[in-house]
Design a protein that fits this description.
By secondary structure, this protein is α+β, with helices and mostly antiparallel strands. Helices cover 56% and strands 14% of the residues. It folds into two domains: 62 residues; 83 residues, H-NOX domain, CATH 3.90.1520.10. It binds protoporphyrin IX containing FE (HEM).
């Protein structure tokens, strides 16, 4: 997985909990020295299992659930990290609906020229005018992170929305 994910996690932990907690997480996840130097570069390749271990150790070291980590990650990505690093993408959207619906295309476009990228894909199905069922398609199985990012999009646009995991591939989103 691309280092942009671990870079965002590092930024979140260091700014909210302190640099020493980030080091404790790297220790707990048994991250080797070489990877420690690379994980803050957005386009570097971080082993998927290593990236997932880092998220799991974040929960363990900070005493949070995996879901709480995913929610904090999603909020930091959408409200702090992406507006700095990917502002040209964020400004294309005027609402949470638009941004969530735009993410399938964005991931394909944005990773098309990045070597080794295997972005998640999303299918969208409206149940009624407020209720969207998203099918999350990724071999990585990171649906909790997906749900956290959806909630982060709601916070970015200051729109009330709820997101409920239906199973390991589907999330139900209810807008305002
Ligand atoms: C500015 C906006 C965004 C950009 C530029 C972006 C870009 C990326 C990139 C480069 C990756 C790594 C892909 C790889 O290693 O092959 C990734 C992963 C991911 N992105 Fe985004 N993303 C954005 C916003 C979002 C949002 C808003 C969501 C959900 C609503 C989302 C869902 C995910 C998930 C769940 C992953 C984890 C990898 C996986 O599940 O396979 N992203 N994104």
């Amino acid at each position: 997985m691309k280092g942009t994910i671990t870079r965002c996690a590092k930024e979140l932990v260091e700014s909210t909990f302190g640099a020493d907690q980030w080091l404790a997480i790297l220790e707990d996840a048994k991250v080797d020295e070489e990877t420690r130097h690379r994980l803050a570069y957005p386009t570097t390749d971080i082993d998927d299992s290593m990236a997932k271990d880092i998220l799991a150790s974040t929960a363990k070291v900070l005493g949070l659930t995996a879901e709480q980590v995913a929610d904090a990650f999603g909020e930091h990505w959408c409200c702090v990290y992406a507006p700095k690093i990917y502002s040209s993408i964020i400004t294309r959207f005027d609402s949470a609906r638009e941004m969530i619906l735009g993410m399938d295309k964005i991931h394909v476009q944005m990773t098309a020229t990045i070597k080794n990228a295997r972005p998640p894909r999303f299918d969208y199905q409206w149940q009624d005018d407020r209720t969207l069922i998203v099918t999350y398609k990724s071999f990585r199985g990171m649906i909790d992170i997906y749900r956290g990012l959806v909630l982060g999009v709601g916070k970015l646009f200051n729109e009330p929305l709820s997101a409920r995991k239906l199973d390991n591939t589907q999330v139900e989103i209810v807008f305002g």
